[in-house]
Design a protein that fits this description.
By secondary structure, the chain is an alpha+beta fold. It is built from two helices and two strands; from the N terminus they run H-H-E-E. A two-stranded antiparallel sheet has the order 1-2. It is elongated and about 95 Å long. It starts with a helix and ends in a 15-residue tail after the last strand.
Length: 119
């Protein structure tokens, strides 16, 4: 980029900022009086259009996020395991603790019954 291109870009940006105006606070004085009918109606219409548009976009985003969450469920391979300990007596008379792992669902309910102890 040469100097004239950069200069034109800066000038265009500055003019755009001045024409558009970055100040949207209705309490600060601007070019129009907000107590007059024209600006008051304009602000009311703008607020209504903004609310309706925002709700429409929010609904679309909500549907998209819900669909994504529902599509993700079959691919969730998170395993939750609860470990319980039971005591067993060995053939030489010692008492040891043996872990028993039980796989549970997201709510803590066992997915299948633990294996029966054979003696």
């Amino acid at each position: 980029m040469n100097h004239s291109t950069i200069s034109r870009l800066v000038e265009t940006t500055a003019i755009t900022w001045l024409l558009v105006g970055c100040d949207s606070d209705p309490n600060r004085p601007g070019l129009t009086d907000p107590r007059q009918p024209g600006p008051a109606v304009g602000q009311a219409v703008g607020a209504t259009v903004g609310a309706v548009g925002g709700n429409a976009v929010g609904a679309v985003v909500g549907v998209a996020e819900g669909t994504t969450a529902a599509a993700r469920v079959p691919f969730n391979n998170t395993r939750r395991v609860v470990r319980q300990w039971r005591q067993e007596t060995t053939s030489d008379g010692r008492v040891i603790q043996v872990p028993v792992d039980i796989e549970v669902d997201a709510y803590g309910r066992p997915l299948k019954a633990p294996k029966a102890v054979t003696k």
